[in-house]
Design brief:
The structure holds two protein chains of two kinds. Chain A contains eleven helices and 14 strands. Chain A is of the alpha+beta class. Chain B is globular, with a radius of gyration of 16 Å. The chains are: A alpha+beta, B alpha+beta.
């Protein structure tokens, strides 16, 4: 086994080109668990923790680009949480302080578990994922990036560099359900983004399908029933029906964290609450 | 930097330690305990959920079970062993004794590291900030009430000795 600890993205890409089958290690919160439990015995590892370029945050007025290796603790408050409140909220629900010091969007994207807390936010915001290899750079929509349970569109030799999301005018929020308040993996999660400029809404669900699910039909239904360009109170009846429509688009399964029935109920409630919060003053 | 000769060095508590004759994929927790003779950090869940293996790496409190030791070369690693002077106790450690914050003691080292880390950043944390800071450290027998009291006492002691 070999371990490479590159200092720059260029060095990391060179190492990847030399050994495209090497495993990428970012914060370790997924891969090290597999290693500790003997579920995986890596042959070669390229550790990305020392690469400062992967922690860069770039803001151009309309979009914000977040380095794939930036730990969640950096998104809990400050500029990112102000510009992308749903991401700030999601970041604050990730694991524990210890996990938030290690976990990152790049890790969520690389593992591509449907329960990754950053992913519903990236989906609701139609994020673009930048992937780089030794001689190419490409941007992939989050919707094409997430392929299935723990499967993504990253090719051998590529490294996830950043996620870019628009700075949206309007309310946005993230909520999740776990078995207790602290230190939980989502049983169900939901991100809701209202775009007041476009008059549109986006809803994405986590942990209730093979990948994060965008609820296009519920979004369409709401935008034809409510003028989303206006700041409007949302009635309880409307919010309830919206929640039910969202839940209809979920594809949950029974597993060790919860039943499909419970998950469907949970996303209905989460979506309904988030919608009501969007109209609260 | 590539490590494939399976010998690497880690800076732990200010001292450089060589790790050799070890599998290079080992977690930092395992290396600290089994290779370097530093058993302060405890191993329980091995998946980052219990916090009993908490150490400080480059100023961040992290679970050492989730760090591949060989990737922590050129990092400053601080474990519970180095918090107090030899044979002494920090205000936090002392408060755990006086407030009865230790029962079986297994979660204690991780909690101590997490709390020292909190108080070094924030000398007078609010109740919520204390709870948040130890939310990644699970105790199954003492109960959080006494642990919480210990933090409150440590805050007061630290304040009194600094002024």
């Amino acid at each position: 086994m070999s371990v490479v600890v590159p200092r720059t993205l260029t060095d990391a890409l060179r190492a990847m080109a030399a050994n495209p089958s090497a495993l990428l290690l970012q914060g370790g919160t997924d891969l090290m668990v597999e290693i500790n439990f003997n579920h995986r015995k890596p042959v070669d590892v390229i550790a990305l923790r020392k690469i400062h370029e992967l922690r860069a945050v770039k803001i151009d007025g309309e979009t914000i680009s977040i380095g794939a290796g930036l730990p969640y603790q950096e998104m809990e408050s400050g500029q990112i949480a102000e510009l992308v409140p749903a991401l700030g909220q999601a970041a604050r629900t990730v694991g524990s302080p210890q996990i938030r010091a290690a976990g990152s969007l790049g890790g969520n994207l690389g593992t591509c578990s449907p329960a990754g807390d950053g992913l519903p936010v990236l989906s609701a915001l139609d994020a673009m994922i930048n992937l780089r290899s030794a001689n190419a750079s490409r941007n992939v929509s989050i919707h094409e990036f997430m392929v299935g349970v723990k499967r993504n569109a990253k090719q051998p030799g590529e490294i996830i560099v950043s996620a870019t999301v628009p700075i949206v005018r309007g309310w946005q929020g993230f909520a999740k359900v776990g078995v207790r308040n602290a230190m939980v993996i989502s049983v169900a999660s939901c991100c809701l983004v209202v775009d007041r400029t476009k008059g549109s809404i986006a809803v994405a669900l986590g942990a209730v399908g093979p990948t994060v699910i965008r609820c296009r039909q519920a979004e369409q239904w709401l935008s034809t029933n409510v003028d989303l360009k206006q700041d409007a109170m949302i009635g309880a009846k409307l919010a309830k029906e919206f929640g039910e429509r969202v839940a209809n688009e979920a594809r949950p399964i029974d597993d060790h964290r919860g039943t499909a029935e419970y998950r469907r109920h949970a996303v209905a409630t989460l979506a309904s609450r988030l919608l009501q919060r969007s109209g609260a003053r | 930097m590539s490590i494939d000769n399976e010998i690497y060095s880690l800076t732990v508590n200010g001292e450089l330690h060589q790790v050799k004759d070890a599998w290079i994929g080992e977690s930092l927790l395992y290396v600290l305990r089994e290779r370097l003779g530093l058993p302060g950090a405890k191993g329980a869940c091995e998946q980052g959920e219990c916090g009993s293996c908490t150490v400080i790496i480059d100023g961040q409190a992290v679970c050492s079970c989730l760090v591949m030791a060989a990737t922590a070369i050129d990092s400053e690693i601080t474990t519970v062993e180095s918090l107090a002077e030899k044979y002494g106790l920090t205000a936090v450690q002392d408060a755990f004794i006086t407030e009865g914050g230790v029962q079986c003691g297994f979660c204690t080292p991780g909690l101590i590291v997490a709390i020292e880390h909190l108080l070094n950043k924030n000398a007078e944390p609010s109740e919520l900030e204390i709870k948040e800071a130890i939310s990644g450290n699970i105790c199954r027998c003492t109960g959080y009430g006494r642990i919480f009291e210990a933090v409150t006492t440590a805050v007061a002691t630290r304040k009194a000795t600094q002024s």
